[in-house]
């Protein structure tokens, strides 16, 4: 990887309570790591045909020519199929289907089919079908999604519902063709369309306004940042009005997505940030971003532009006229560079700022963290000794 070119820092300028300590734009040729989001292939229906339960004493041989395709709800209503359903109120429904006819049934479970259990309501997220031989039973696992954040999450019997949610049809059709969509992303998108939940209700990190609770406990529907970004990208793809989605209001989601290596690529894609414009994004976020999130930019710079951070962050940490939250964040971000060069800088800052001050203690803690991290990296290196050679090669 080419190193990022460093330029001279501008003269410190105090503005808006923070320092404009900013180097020029690094070389656009620098290649930065952008790990992909993890991809999860989800199987809609898994049939366990080996678990057969005879419904009649005699064995009936199925004639493929007599097989018929039938919708799950129709088959149960017409008593061609006996069905027992047990779900957890969120992503999984276990069904035992017993064929009561003398012909082979190909049972279709359509996306959008709803199930109820008391006040709990779930919907089939991915369609599928399963063959059920005459007089036999099979067990299938159906991927579902809660349509209400008030769902109680525990295993309970469910029954088929006649209800429909047309607003979810575009989402479910889109998900059917994209197995890479995670369970968390689909669930988050469903609740965005049915209840328009705010970010604080679904994010695992503490969002702005996170102390504002909804009427229900949504802790069972907290999603990873990557799942939320995937849900928003999906909603955009199906034509949902993004300005009407409460998920998009909190500015913390954007910067949370950008500072995490695992979600950075997804965040850049969703927010339209390129490698050429990323540096300008961090600069703007730090100097004029939302007051509640601007200090996060220091961590982003440390992680993805460590050479710049090693020059810039000590100046932010030492400047007495800037806000303490920015000075502490600059100190902590030095450890996020994961560079050994940051260790002596942090030790000097501990002495300069005073070991008994809040800033000095932050520097000492950051130095301890970085030292332990570097030691762990060194211990994880694989040492290989070749026979006949006194030299040891390290990889």
Any low-confidence stretches, pLDDT <50, length ≥5?
A: 1-20, 28-62, 383-395
From the 3D structure, determine the CATH topology of the domain at 47-164. Answer: Immunoglobulin-like
- Range of helix content: 25-40%
Largest sheet: 6 strands, antiparallel, barrel
Strand content of the residues, in percent?
15-25%
Number of helices: 13
Rg over C-alpha atoms, rounded to the nearest angstrom: 28 Å
Describe the structure.
The longest helix has 22 residues, at 358-379. α6 (252-259) packs across α7, α6 runs parallel beside α9 and α12 packs antiparallel against α13. The chain has helices at 72-77, 169-176, 183-194, 199-202, 225-237, 252-259, 264-271, 275-288, 296-304, 306-318, 324-336, 342-353, 358-379; strands at residues 14-15, 18-19, 45-48, 68-71, 81-87, 92-99, 105-109, 114-117, 120-124, 128-132, 137-146, 156-161, 383-385, 392-394. It is an alpha+beta fold. Residues 1-20, 28-62 and 383-395 have low confidence and may be disordered. 38% of the residues are buried.
